[in-house]
Design brief:
Layout: H1 2-24, H2 38-43, E1 45-48, H3 53-66, E2 78-93, E3 99-114, E4 120-133, H4 138-179
Parallel strand pairs: 1-2
Antiparallel strand pairs: 2-3, 3-4
Helix pairs in contact: 3-4
Length: 180
């Protein structure tokens, strides 16, 4: 323990000494405030999803994430089209063939396009897997399944937001580089 307390100040100095090197190589935080704010770019995206319960939940969760700062665009320049699909897997199967644990897998392929155009600018897949225990009460199983799907929806919406943020940040940086 004595050796660790003696090394702590040295480790702190080492980390502080390496921090300026990160900016020299072009590293910058994704959500940092600067010219061409990323939040404004994300708020410029409208969301289209299937008219199902899962589609609506995913759409509105993603809209909440994209417009986290409360900024929304009256005329969005981009559209992200979502195509969710889900399935369940039996994980823990007893000898009497009863299932005591299930996985819910949510896969969402999405495509970013400019408003009014069909040419995709960016396409990807976001996925999430959550688990829940099955019990004797069917009502408890239904509630646990719905809760697992809601958690998956939130995780996938955050992943899509992150992927779109990386896309917009990469294009902002590329535009600045070509302008110089």
């Amino acid at each position: 323990m004595y050796r660790l307390t003696r090394l702590a100040p040295l480790l702190a100095l080492l980390v502080l000494g390496l921090a300026p090197g990160l900016t020299a190589c072009g590293f910058s935080p994704l959500y940092a405030t600067r010219d061409g704010d990323l939040g404004a770019s994300l708020a410029n995206v409208s969301v289209e999803a299937p008219d199902t319960r899962l589609g609506r939940d995913l759409k509105y969760t993603l809209i909440d994430n994209l417009q986290a700062a409360g900024k929304s665009s009256a005329a969005p320049q981009y559209v992200v089209k979502l195509a969710p699909r889900t399935y369940e897997e039996d994980v823990a199967i007893q000898q009497d063939a009863s299932v005591t644990r299930k996985n819910i897998v949510l896969l969402v392929s999405f495509t970013l396009t400019r408003q009014g155009e069909d040419k995709p600018l960016y396409s990807s897949l976001a996925r999430s897997r959550t688990s829940y225990n099955r019990v004797d009460s069917e009502f408890a199983n239904i509630i646990a399944s719905e809760d697992g799907l809601q958690r998956s929806t939130e995780m996938v919406a955050e992943d899509i937001k992150l992927q779109l943020g990386v896309y917009f940040e990469g294009h902002r940086t590329a535009k600045q580089t070509t302008a110089k």
